Amino acid sequence: MTTTPAPVAAPAPRITVRQALDLPVLRRGMPDVLAGADRLDRPIRWVHAGEVDYIASMLRGGELLLTTGLGIGKRVADQRRFVAGLADKGIAALAIELGHSFPTMPDAIVQSARQHDLPLVALHREVPFVSVTEAIHREIVHAHYALLRRGDDVHRRLTELLLAGQGIPEVLAATAELVDNPVFLEDGDGRLLFHAAGPHHAGDATPVDPLDAWTAAKGDGRAPWRAGLAAPVPHGPSQAAGRLLALPLRGPLDERAEVVLERAAGIVALSLLRARQEEELVARERGDFLVDLAAGRIAGRDAQRQARSIGFAPAGPQLLPVAAESDAAAGSAAWSLVLRDAQTELDGRGTVALIGQRGRPGRLLGLVALREDQDRAAVADGVADALRTAAGRRLGAGELLVAVGLPVAWPDAGRGLQLTEETASAAASLPPARWHDAGALELQRLLWRWRDDAEVAAFVRRRLGALLEHDAQRKHALLPTLEALCANGWRKAETARALHLNRQALYNRLTRLEQLLGVDLSDPEQTMTVHLALRALPYVEPDATTAGPRVRG
């Protein structure tokens, strides 16, 4: 949905009616609020004093009007008309000094003020109106300078982030913290580029998800949380301006928030124009959603709705989790272009996919729509090829490891992503493949999760330690023979052919292996433990020269 960016008006310094009544000069007048007590947080733009019945025509709105009542009149109709005229102008409050015209406040004025929700204040003692005007105007000027200082502080803090090497995501996170509400960066078409949720408060038992609020805020309605602030973010001379939007989910957004948003929008605009980070932000936004989903921070019932808000709306019920890893020396911006190219390729094939960056550059996570009439292997081939081709075109050399999970529905998408992500990490020690099947690598994934477990390391050391020590001290290693035997189902003839050995040579090696390992390789129970130790070896490898394990990261 295309939205028109709403500019931020110049923030107006303010003092509220309540704050004005707390000033010493007004407190000396013994103020008494007779109407509009629930409207005392109205801001005062200016102070005016006057004694004519047409005073409303001289006002613009937002004033605190001071009067002794000389121009109001004694008739009930005049009194009601006087108050109604002020209410129509939108003044902040009416303060009448009793004693000169009215010993007590007339009922008609009180009732009319209540009818129009206009704060009405009775001053029981005489106060110099000029002193009140000076005091409030002084507060307004001080507020103005405070806002200017606030703007300078915000600009300095956000600029320091960029100078320290941080990017737009960190600027938005700092902005959300400053306004204590979520902020959203949109492009000129209303597409969400990135969002920052802001700090989590301990009292937020069931916080509103920012993506849900952003989607709902585009609809009709006058709910308070829709009354956000927006600042334009230019994207270049030939592009429509985007906007930086803040939504008041945790609390109201005041003029200080306006200053923060305005300064942040300027910083973001400069960064976008300099580095063209739109695609990088999209990749990060999608990656953050997928990471949160995999970590269980998004409930399955909410995931489909939130995915739709960032542009992923598959027609079918089945999803294919995907994870990829590469050590190619490239930054986040380069990988965002890889994802853009891969997305374009998949779109051309009619494959609906959501793929984003996770963690460091080169670590990807995704969900791919799988229709009932589609073959999982064919779709997995297409996704792996698209990612690998895009990475090769943009980054040159460098192997891209791809893992594909089993089909899942939305309620199980998070768990499927987590298993596929772990499979990608576990497959790093396996021979290269077009893509690694998470369903066929359950044991490897489980052992990878136990890579830091001391018991597993001790088990591998007990089973294989003597063999590893032997190979470290001799030219002809025996570990490849054991691995080939395991890979060929412990069948000797197939193992001999795989190693290009005659049978007697293989038997000599097997005898030596049995001696070193202290096992009978014809015993299925013992070969199973050796097999498990071999599978665990790439993840927890005992060092042949020490008693302890050397754990791979």
TrEMBL record:
It holds the Pfam family PucR. Gene3D superfamilies: PucR C-terminal helix-turn-helix domain. Residues 20-140 form the Purine catabolism PurC-like domain. It comes from the Bacteria. InterPro entries: CdaR-like_regulators (IPR051448), PucR_C-HTH_dom (IPR025736), PucR_C-HTH_sf (IPR042070), PucR_dom (IPR012914). Residues 478-536 form the PucR C-terminal helix-turn-helix domain. This is PucR family transcriptional regulator. It comes from Patulibacter brassicae.
